[in-house]
């Protein structure tokens, strides 16, 4: 049964919903402040319990990935959180909507993620063409810094966190995490051999975690609901694919767009309940002819 949610898309239709005021009105940044006062193991336990399978396509559990990072960090080997906002797949635009319409969820998620992996800096790698996304992120970072949520003592807590936006150069291959890391370092965007994995040798040769935009932006919701409660929103909870996520429906449907729903929604529900059905009611025989799931 289709279960609609609005955790990330709550303010998508609201004028100026991307600003910090509306975000704080809905409880924004409370979970980041709470996270910085938690024990790291407790934070990781919540993220693991949420069963957030990577929202960038690979489907690797975010909590498990965070746990791969060596801990505690060594002073000579700082940790980095890197957000993959390249989103180069044709027809894929869910992350762009987060950055443009709910950027503070991503910034708050970065604060929580940095604490979870022992990092003090997060880099958001944005595809070059996404100019509005970059502008909204830069604006959100400045708003958060002015409020004291970023910097040397976020929320008055001695755990420095900075968030930076890095513009890509338009190469499709930089959607792959190790190519992205090379590009972030100013090198040619080419895949690296694995091992070593980013958790051992990532950005600037240091331990790093690479997460998708949506994977990080949903983390404040995970802490607000509790990891297990978030996971159980999903019809696939028993398969450890938890929570809710954004779905893009485009092409020859009556109501294309981005829809938020619990994990486990069927293709029929996406096309007919959310997408409104096929334009012209299908082909010559009135039937759906073809579906391309998940980009090229």
Distance between the termini: 28 Å
> Topology as H/E string?
HHHHEHHEHEHEHHHEEH
Q: State mean pLDDT (0 to 100 scale).
A: 94
* Biggest sheet features: 4 strands, parallel
Oligomeric assembly: single chain
Please give the count of helices. Answer: 12
Q: Which outline best applies?
A: globular
Number of extended strands: 6
> Strands across the major sheet, in which order?
3-2-1-4
Class by alpha and beta content: alpha/beta
Which blocks of ≥5 consecutive residues have pLDDT under 50? none
Rg, please? 19 Å
Task: Report strand %.
Answer: 5-15%
Approximately how much helix is present in the residues?
25-40%
Characteristics:
two-stranded antiparallel ribbon; 296 residues; 12 helices; alpha/beta
Describe the structure.
By secondary structure, this protein is of the alpha/beta class. Helices cover 34% and strands 13% of the residues. The chain contains 12 helices and 6 strands. It has helices at residues 20-25, 30-36, 40-50, 62-67, 94-101, 103-117, 131-146, 177-184, 213-217, 219-225, 227-231, 267-274; strands spanning 79-85, 119-126, 162-167, 208-212, 244-249, 257-262. Helix 7 links the parallel strand 2 and strand 3 (162-167). The longest helix is centred in the middle third of the chain and has 16 residues, at 131-146. The radius of gyration is 19 Å and the shape is globular.
């Amino acid at each position: 049964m289709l279960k609609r949610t609005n955790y990330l898309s709550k303010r998508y239709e609201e004028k100026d919903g991307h600003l910090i005021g509306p975000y704080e009105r809905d409880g924004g940044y409370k979970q980041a402040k709470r996270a910085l006062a938690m024990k790291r193991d407790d934070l990781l336990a919540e993220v693991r319990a949420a069963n957030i399978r990577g929202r960038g396509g690979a489907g690797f559990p975010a909590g498990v990935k965070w746990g791969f990072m060596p801990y505690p960090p060594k002073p000579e080997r700082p940790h980095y959180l890197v957000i993959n906002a390249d989103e180069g797949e044709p027809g894929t635009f869910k992350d762009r909507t987060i950055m443009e319409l709910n950027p503070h969820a991503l910034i708050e998620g970065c604060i929580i993620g940095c604490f979870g992996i022992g990092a003090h800096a997060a880099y958001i790698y944005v595809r070059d063409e996404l100019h509005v996304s970059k502008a909204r992120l830069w604006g959100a970072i400045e708003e958060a810094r002015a409020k004291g949520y970023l910097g040397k003592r976020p929320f008055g807590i001695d755990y420095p966190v900075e968030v930076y936006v890095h513009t890509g150069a338009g190469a499709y291959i930089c959607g792959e995490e190790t190519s992205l890391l090379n590009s972030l370092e100013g090198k040619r965007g080419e895949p690296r051999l694995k091992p070593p994995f980013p958790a051992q040798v990532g950005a600037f040769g240091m331990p790093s975690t690479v997460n998708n935009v949506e994977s990080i932006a949903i983390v404040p919701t995970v802490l607000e609901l509790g990891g297990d409660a978030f996971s159980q929103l999903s019809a696939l909870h028993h398969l450890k694919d938890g929570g809710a996520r954004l779905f893009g429906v485009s092409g020859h449907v009556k109501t294309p767009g981005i829809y938020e729903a619990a994990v486990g929604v069927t293709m029929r529900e996406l096309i007919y309940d959310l997408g409104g059905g096929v334009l012209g009611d299908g082909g010559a025989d009135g039937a759906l002819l073809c579906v391309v799931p998940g980009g090229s």
